[in-house]
UniProtKB/TrEMBL annotation:
Belongs to the universal ribosomal protein uS5 family. Coiled coil: none annotated. Keywords: Ribonucleoprotein, Ribosomal protein. This is Small ribosomal subunit protein uS5. Residues 18-81 form the S5 DRBM domain. The keyword Cell wall biogenesis/degradation does not apply. GO terms for biological process: translation.
Length: 159
């Protein structure tokens, strides 16, 4: 019976190669002559847990459409991160807007010692052992995510 319903609806979703996590959903308002128009802005992080990670931001009338658009946007902005023995190669820091983040490599078994946004991004990138610190006082998840991604882009591969 369930199989028949699936065929009837024709909506079997194939599994994506990227895992995704919604970081932030914000209701944004535009004031027009007739009143206020509401939309939703979503920030989504996608990653394959093997060194590829991306951030996508998009807006739509409802949350599900905004998430789908943000995932499509994140796939266009993927970054490849050099990972060695489940950690990063060296210490990096970056600033984006008011957000400042520091990422340090950690020994095997230490785990993800990070809070909030850097934890999610490092997890989806496949980094298992790292220490992170958000130095700034900002709680803006979008700027924290962008600062973390900028720090990961600064990683150099030593041969």
């Amino acid at each position: 019976m369930a199989e028949r319903l699936r065929k009837f609806r024709g909506r079997e979703k194939e599994k994506s190669e990227y895992d995704q996590k919604v970081l932030d959903v914000a209701r944004v308002t535009r004031v027009v002559a007739g009143g206020r128009r509401f939309r939703f802005r979503t920030v989504v992080v996608i990653g394959n847990r093997a060194g590829k990670v991306g951030i996508g931001i998009d807006k739509a009338q409802d949350v599900t459409t905004a998430v789908e658009k943000a995932v499509a946007n994140a796939k266009k902005n993927l970054v490849i991160i050099p990972i060695k023995d489940t950690t990063i190669l060296h210490e990096v820091s970056a600033k984006f807007g008011a957000a400042v983040v520091i990422l340090k490599p950690a020994k095997k078994g230490k785990g993800l010692v990070a809070g909030g946004v850097p934890r999610v991004i490092c997890d989806l990138a496949g980094i298992e052992n790292v220490t992170s610190k958000l130095v700034s006082r900002t709680t803006n998840k979008l700027n924290n995510a962008r600062a973390t991604l900028e720090a990961l882009k600064k990683l150099k591969r030593f041969e």
